[in-house]
Give the backbone structure.
Amino acid sequence: MTAESTFKLTYATMFNPPEELHTRFEDALARVKAKLGQEHGMIIDGKEVFAAKKFEDRNPANTDMVLGIFQQGTAEDAQAALAAARRAFPAWSRMPWQDRVALIRKAADLIDQRIYEIAAVVSLEVGKNRMEALGDVAETADLFRYACDRMEANNGFVVEMGRDPLVGFEARNVSVLRPYGVWLVISPFNFPCALTGGPAAAALVTGNTVVMKPASDTPWSVRLIAECLRDAGLPDGVINYVTGPGSTLGQALIDSPEVDGITFTGSYDVGMHIYRSFAQGRWPRPTILEMGGKNPAIVSRHANLEDAAAGIVRSAFGLQGQKCSACSRIYIEAPVYDQLVNRLVELTNKLSIGDPTERKNFLGPVINRKSYADYQAFCEELSQAGTILTGGKVLTEGEYAKGYFCAPTLVADLPLNHRLWKYEMFLPISTIAKVESLEEAMRLANDVDYGLTAGFYGSEEEAQWFFEHIEAGVVYANRPQGATTGAWPGFQPFGGWKGSGSTGKNAGGVHYLQLYMHEQSRTLIRRL
């Protein structure tokens, strides 16, 4: 994680960290808390830019706590950022790719050096527990490095092609992948570092310039990633950071003809709106969308039930279920249904809920008032149609009084035709069904518009059958570290099928970088 650390943190290894991690996180948290309430500008063309209107960034665990003051950017700010990126593009795109790689690697090193401070901000701002917050930041640095690795492995994506058999001439043909231009990155609240930094690094290392717009719930975390890029020495205008409402600033960015490509991570509805809006331009432009999931775990009668229970609970309730990869549907073969359900309830009831910066807590708050209200509405609907096994209520007493705390919730006996089997709630709620066969489970698992992640527990032979039949981009078998969550760059490329993604290529994988470039075929003829 840093030059001084003695261990490597990933989502799969965060469950038994050394004491050093906790000591350093708590020291960083104290430093961050000493700086709360400060105003932060936008970064446009290397300069701090302030808007006439501001908004407060508050802690969802304690809404009395103002984390910082941020700018409510306007359509004019959007155009200024795009113009700066356009001016910076010629020099940045023509820089030797090795020099761009060196700068992105330097930014990754800065993330490592600042990882505890950034993670403390993520924990306060998002509501992630300290391990998930550190994982988000560590993943960002690894996404930076993986983008650089892929650029190097492909030698800058310059490939000598075949030579035409022309008598009296020598023909040289070369395939070159070149950047598009100005790239827009719109990121969600739940992984503000990785889902901003990963696409930004891919765009930058391939020669594009970038405008990044974070979710309004998480402007500070993204600002800190932008600072690492700025402080690494990227030229002015190569990276720009703007904040403000999606309905005004965000839409102005999406509608601008100055945007040559876009990466968006968020809900299906917003993603499809962007997809259709972006199609109104003068010509087709690359649109990379990751739009959520309704992710199943299938448990065979031959499964290791302890592994299944651990993996399902971690994936269902990590970050309060606010992950596009969260395990929100559980299909269990009848012979092991009762035993596994009892264990799931038992493990869920042991989860500690509270201030996510405290070491003891696994769950923090949901992100905002709307999610808090949605949770209550969904639980009421589910209680009318099914059986709430545990949870189903908000927590309002004592330490919970000033935050958006929701109990992790498991629901059984929900009719399989109920709408919430197919609707992404994005909350700590999972539904459970008993099935008579794996074939029935697979049919139900695939019968949704999404196809992001999926998990399986059973024999190795059954796992191979699962891999062949499941309609999802990221699939795991027999994984106690997480049934449907925990992808890491260079290990599990992350992206979805169907309504979960638009490209068929996964972030943190071997085919992702190419999405940020278009191909030019070059032929040079020389007379002999």
